[in-house]
Amino acid sequence: MSGLRTLPVLLLLSLQAAASPPHWVASWGASPQARWDQDFVLPVGVPASFEQQSVRDVVRLSVGGKRLRIVLSNRYGATPLHVGGMRVALAGEGAALVGASRAVTFGASAGASAAPGAVLVSDPVDLPAGALARLAVTTYYPAHTPVSTFHWGAQQTPYLANGNATAAADLPAAARFAGRAFLTTVLVEAPAATRSVVVLGDSITDGNGSSPDRDRRWTDALAERLAPSGVGVVNAGISGARLLGDRMGANALARFDQDVLAQPGVASVIVMMGINDIGWPGSPFAPGDAAVSAEQVVKAYRQLIARARSHNLRIVGATLLPFEGALAGTPFEGHYSPAKEAVRQRVNRWIVGSGEFDAVFDADAVLRDPARPSRLRVDYDSGDHLHPGDAGYRALAQALDVNALMGKSARGIEPDGARRRPRR
């Protein structure tokens, strides 16, 4: 009789397990930007439009899963974004695929549209992909499609082919460009304990100075540390991004909801930005802008902290990297000055000493030259005295204290290097 009494319990548990909804987690991301063309010192670097053309993007996941969803963004579009077809596969070298590609549908249809300002989320795709797997996402744009929403640079090469090339095993004749167009997120269906970390940053997070097409950004190296423990990393870096100003992307407070809070499964956010707020005024990037004070930067941090706390999200503040000599001898000279360095130092003292972030990552201490703390270490410098190179980015990822990042012991990950502050 005791065995019979346990049957309803076992049946109930079985039904509850079957009814559990899929657990979707953001595994890769590229933050959208509004297009600029004639009135800024840097070129856009992506085509003005697509028409009867296919774009193949290669991305590397952080955590893996048994199914995928692809997300396109029309955040800055003035007209609907029309997709004629999409396929996804494991990626090989260049634009080549590994194995068969899978069709990506939207509401069971191959074609779909996203209204101006909206995102387009695919149906689940049955393509199991392991942690750190590389995917090729190929999208066909049949009609005239202005590239109004894009991501600049990103240290990754997309491939542009004529016609519907979504099923092509390789694209040897494809044109190439720098950046992303519309593709913004890849989600994975993963175990319920899987979560992700978003890094909100600028070109240092976006990976400028790292080896292109080699996944050498500091967030890539961090993903290699965290993925075995079921923690994904979403790169929300935008080159030129600022806390307070718009230009190369919206200011941090304006994009925080969509680029951070809207990411499924996010548990923590690292804020590593502010150096452009300090460096841009008076430089060719923002020649007419007034200097920004440390107090203005701190006020922006406090707003980000408040937004994160209101969503029960852990927030980690990263100190600003040294930048003496940044871009000297280039058309962008003027980024650094002793007065700007003094502001950076005041900001860093506040980040480390205020206790207002849940934890602190002292990135400055990791990469500065001990003999001249206002400069990057030579072996960590990409050469422009502003962005780290591959070695510097890896040093950043290895120094981050994962326990401080996640707020509890993270089993299977080696923590070291970062300073931790209690919440006040």
TrEMBL record:
CDD domains named in the record: XynE_like
Cited Pfam families: Lipase_GDSL_2
Family annotation (InterPro entries): GDSL_Rv0518-like, SGNH_hydro, SGNH_hydro_sf
Record key words, sorted: Hydrolase, Signal
A GO molecular function held by the record: hydrolase activity
Record's signal peptide: 1-19
UniProt domain SGNH hydrolase-type esterase: residue ranges: 199-395
PANTHER family: GDSL-LIKE LIPASE/ACYLHYDROLASE, PUTATIVE (AFU_ORTHOLOGUE AFUA_2G00820)-RELATED, GDSL-LIKE LIPASE_ACYLHYDROLASE, PUTATIVE (AFU_ORTHOLOGUE AFUA_2G00820)-RELATED
Protein name from the UniProt record: SGNH/GDSL hydrolase family protein
Species, as recorded: Massilia violaceinigra
